[in-house]
Amino acid sequence: MKDSLFSKIFLIVFISISVVFMAFIYQFTVLQKESIVDSLRIKAKSIAKNVVISNSDAMVVDDEIKLLESVQDFVNLNEDIESFSTTRKAGNRLIIKKDSWSLVEREDIKDKIKKVVSYKIENSSISNKEVFCYKYPVYFSSVLWGNFVVELSLKEYNRQISQMYQKSVGLMFLLLISTVFISYYIAKMISKPIITLNLISEDIAKGDLTKRADIQTNDEIGNLARGFNSMIDTLESSQKRLKNSHSELEERVKQRTLELKELNENLEKTVSAEIRKRQEQEQILIQQSKLASMGEMIGNIAHQWRQPLNALGLVMQNIQFSYEMGELDDAFMERSVKKVNLLTNNMSKTIDDFRNFFKPNKEREPFILNNLVEKTLELVESSFEHHKIDIEEKISGEIKVYGFPNEFSQTLLNILNNAKDALIEHSIEESKVSITILEENRFGVVIIEDNAGGIPKDILGKIFEPYFTTKEEGKGTGIGLYMSKIIVEQNMEGKLIAQNTKIGARFIAKIPLYRDFKR
């Protein structure tokens, strides 16, 4: 605690002061550099003005020889000047260096005439090195005559910059040492009383209530110390009262422990009995649901087998007729046997489909929702066709979900059979059941709708209760939708909702998508 708090405060104060000092040094360096550049600008401006004043006559009459002689002497005598050039608006460019000069014709001049003063440090194409370049426009009677370009040596500039950086480093080192001492003093001043309070609190946590905080300041920490001492006094008094009541409490605890032990034994027996009773009831419900589903399945099998049995009867009649007519040959028998085999294979496949439907899934597994719905519809297709009920499918892409496929198929079958019974009971013309499959948020959704008029509002909230049914006695168990609700919501963490539409009932079954479980 001591090292941690002191180090944190020291580090915060040190960084804060260092940032301020670094900003000050940076600003100082920028201002110094600007000042040095400004001194070069003033010197270059003075040189340009002196040349204008001393050579104004020669410039007005375009006496280049006189201007060259005057400026050449001026450049040779001034060590700071690297080069001096003049560019007339209607003439040639004269470039003058120490002990040399040159004249550039108008068509070879690339630089445009500048109408305002400009200056910067750049690499000179004339001096072939880095210089301070100052461009000065020359006016006579408010008419632009041309430009003077003065290039000054950076020797003095570099020397001053070097001195400035040396001073900055020295100042930085001095400020760094000062920052360390200031940070240490502030960190110690702030952390010492807090560390003292922490040490006392550690002693109190160990059971020593004789410690007190000796902090006499009038600030918030002093108030905290006095409040801390008052809290210790109260705690010490409470501890004495607690010791006095400890013996009485132990006796009460022993008595209550015996009572709770007896109560716990009775409670465990009661809970175990209730759990066994509930498990037995759930098994009975499941068995009843399976038996009810098997009854529906037997009816569906009968509808599935009616057409192939009729076809088998026709094949046998054709064989008998051919035999009586004397046209029964090997080719006819072979065709008839193939047709019989095809029909019996389809009937066998129907048995396999219905048998697989009743196999429970031991663990949740991924499956394609679209395929499961198609297989479920195959189980009731013949029954729906027999009662002239149209099935309309609306599928939006392949949806992969996670759950118990056979149990979910049983849920869909319960809803479809309820829709079929409602349509038959109300004698609906143009009976129709629509099935929509879509993906919504984290769920695969199956929506089953019919046009049987809907569920009465007074019983809509009861249809998922066990043993609740609106069918005649002997035609419904009242556990199909109850078990469907348990399968979808408890076993597969989904949702099963019943609603009414303008023309009938709507059931919405949602089960989680596979990607939300894949880790």
Notes on the protein architecture:
By secondary structure, the chain is of the alpha+beta class. Among the domains are: 160 residues, Beta-Lactamase, CATH 3.30.450; 154 residues, 2-Layer Sandwich (Heat Shock Protein 90), CATH 3.30.565.10. Helix content is 59%, strand content 17%. It contains nine helices and 13 strands. The strands form three sheets. It has a six-stranded antiparallel β-sheet with strand order 3-2-1-6-5-4, with helices on one face. Strands 8-10-11-13-12 form a five-stranded mixed β-sheet. Strands 7-9 form a two-stranded antiparallel sheet. Strand 4 and strand 5 form a beta hairpin. Helix 1 runs antiparallel to helix 4. The longest helix is centred in the middle third of the chain and has 106 residues. The radius of gyration is 51 Å and the shape is flat. It starts with a helix and ends in a 7-residue tail after the last strand.
Count of helices?
9
CATH topology of one domain: Beta-Lactamase
Radius of gyration: 51 Å
| CATH class group of one domain | Alpha Beta
- The share of residues in extended strands comes to 15-25%
Average pLDDT, rounded to a whole number, is: 76
Spatial order of the strands in the main sheet? 3-2-1-6-5-4
Shape: flat
The arrangement of helices and strands along the chain is: HHHEEEEEEHHHEHEEHEEHEE
Low-confidence stretches: none
Level-2 CATH architecture of one domain: 2-Layer Sandwich
DSSP E strands, number? 13
Q: Tell me the span between the first and last alpha carbons.
A: 42 Å
How much helicity do the residues have? 55-70%
What about the largest sheet?
6 strands, antiparallel
Q: What's the name of the CATH homologous superfamily of one domain?
A: PAS domain
Structural class: alpha+beta
